[in-house]
Design goal:
two-stranded antiparallel sheet, 2 helices, mainly beta, about 10% helix, five-stranded mixed beta sheet, 2 domains
Length: about 180
């Protein structure tokens, strides 16, 4: 499905228009070439961002990091990215760090925390026990009766998750089985 964009003084305005809509606007035109005041448009997928990259919100339409630029055949999306500042990198690292997993190792290149011991590959289901840095088998999946469960490391069993406190700012700590203040 082709796209077209309106041009005014050589500059694209508004957003791309689908070929079907253009055909309704210009039924006499076969759309092999763009009607006067329009140009063909090519949609380009946004880039896959690196771990510490973000869209450059200082550029593009409504700060999305995407601009429409001229090509030999019309116009296309051009995406702009920037590296995160050191402060933004630290915020991202801290947001992905599990507060209660002190033994886990941070991989700077991927911004991923990993257990110091590899997850067993025997097909069974395990949970991490921080107290002795080990993977503990859960002896099967959680019950499927519709209630929320967590695997209690103290009881070594699936336990119904208590309702959260009514106040804001609590998260459930699966290591200790309690709601804790963020």
């Amino acid at each position: 499905m082709g796209l077209f964009i309106q041009i005014q003084d050589g500059v694209p305005i508004n957003h791309p228009i689908f070929e079907d809509n253009m055909q309704q606007l210009f039924p006499e035109n076969n759309l092999e070439t763009a009607p006067i005041g329009f140009a063909k448009f090519v949609r380009v997928d946004p880039p896959t961002l690196g771990v510490y990259e973000k869209m450059d919100n200082s550029k593009g339409h409504e700060g999305c990091g995407c601009e429409y630029e001229a090509t030999d055949d019309g116009f296309q999306d051009v995406w702009h990215t920037v590296n995160m500042t050191s402060g933004e990198r630290e915020i991202k690292k801290n947001e992905c760090k599990p507060d209660f997993l002190n033994t886990w190792i941070f991989d700077e290149a991927t911004c991923i925390w990993s257990a110091p011991v590899s997850y067993p590959d025997d097909g069974a289901m395990y949970v991490w026990r921080e107290a002795d840095s080990s993977w503990i088998p859960t002896n099967g999946s959680a019950p499927t009766d519709g209630q929320p469960y967590y695997f209690s490391l103290s009881d070594m069993a699936w336990t119904v998750l208590d309702a959260p406190p009514t106040e804001e700012g609590y998260i459930f700590n699966y290591q200790i089985g309690e709601w804790v203040d963020e």
